[in-house]
Records
---
Amino acid sequence: MRLIIALLLPWLTFFTISRPIAGIICLILQLTILGWLPATIWAVYALSQYKTDQKIKEALGTRQI
């Protein structure tokens, strides 16, 4: 679901992953026609990094005694 949001409303993706300042910057970038594509790419990249971070936290959380 977040991937669809990242493609349609890139700025909203940052708010869903708790990065509001990046969301505001992305919204400003998205308001320009030329900035739409970089904003979308940035949002998809940030979302993939967020998912990776969550997997790492989960893996380390289960190994700790």
Note: The CA atoms of residues 43 and 49 lie 10 Å apart.
---
Amino acid sequence: MKPLAIHAYTATTALGAGRAALWRGLRERRSGLVPCDFEGADLATWIGRVAGCEQVELPVALADWHCRNNQLAELALCQDGFIDAVNAARARHAPERIGLFLGTSTSGIATTERAYREIAQNRLPAWFSFEHSHDYFALCGYVQRRLGLAGPALTISTACSSSAKVFASAARSIESGFCDVAVVGGVDSLCLTTLYGFNSLQLISPEPCRPWDAARSGISIGEAGGFALIGPANEATSGPRVAGIGESGDAHHMAAPEPDGQGAALAMRRALDDAGVDAAAVDYVNLHGTATRANDQAEDRAIVGLFGEATPASSTKGWTGHTLGAAGIVEAVIGCLALEHDYRPATLNTIAVDETLRCRLLTEPLTGGVRRVLSNAFGFGGSNCSLLLDMGARR
């Protein structure tokens, strides 16, 4: 793959709207997790809820697309001058030449949950529109109309790797000539299905998640939305780039990772090979780091097997929660922030690192020398994706 320039990027998480809020939270070591207060969820856990999401108003012309997921998409799109950047790209390229590739795991399912609570005489309420909310293309459909795009559009749903794999789909479409540039990203919003589903798997933590900790007890579910505008890079391109992408599908189990992390290691190795660098060239690994016992162990084995025990690594789930289908784009944005600020964030909430895990987990932030960042996103069923990010001409 040829490197892809990241012309604009943004993320909205439990830390606030836009990347400045995300960066402040990382620097201040201030978590966005709160005790679960999501409507209808009677669970003893912590969540990463985006404040004010329920009050977001969609443009009048797109009112039919109302659902929590599209409200979160709207809030995220309006940050960091992202819409202006897309408008400028649309002026340079025809709308038909801008692709759209977005990830989500549950789309607008919260609206369907509400509709079924209001069912009467075996009929769903008249206000409910599956097409504009829960359908997996609803997210792409909304964003496509909101940004005035008319190129290839695709929703990817591979659980927690969804919005990392969008970079791969966009890269292939650009390389094949289907589009000149692309908007990529992902949005996943809180819903009862996800909260109770992970609870049934005994995977949610009763306290803020503690990745790599000896006493870790599960994930903290979050919600987020993020986007990036990407296109081919050249030698003069400065700023963050996607230098390599690696994917794998280990298909070990429907939910559990392959215990030795073989699929995860393959995705990371392919990202390095794609960029034409070796493991020693990576200065920081943003771990998938969910804080479940099985996932952390498998990823640790993959990291140590490929990088050894010296490469700094951390999980940022303690700030945002595990944002599932949006995790890939959120952590790619964190990777860009790490490059731009020459900063490796620590792992939040971890008190005592599990002695059986051997990678160099950061419990304190580390500055300086950040030239290349590897960002991991691993989904159910072994659907894995790793992104290698660098700073292009600046370095």
Note: The mean pLDDT is 96.
---
Amino acid sequence: MARTITGKGEKRLRISQIAAVQWEPAGPIVNGFIQFTLPGGIERRSAFGHHAANAAKDENSVVFTGELQPEFETLRAAVE
């Protein structure tokens, strides 16, 4: 699904480029996401209830299901 939204390209970030990590855990009926903030990047505030939908459109975010959340928690801890 991500490829249909963002294409087949690839973006790599160095750990030193990441200024902050935004985290939204997955719920019973909603997906979670991890979003990386870069220095000088322009952040948008999401409307209530639209966080994961907006993250799906952000090239610095990855949306995940509850089933994959433990792996993304490990990633978040490693980046932080």
Note: The chain has a mean pLDDT of 80.
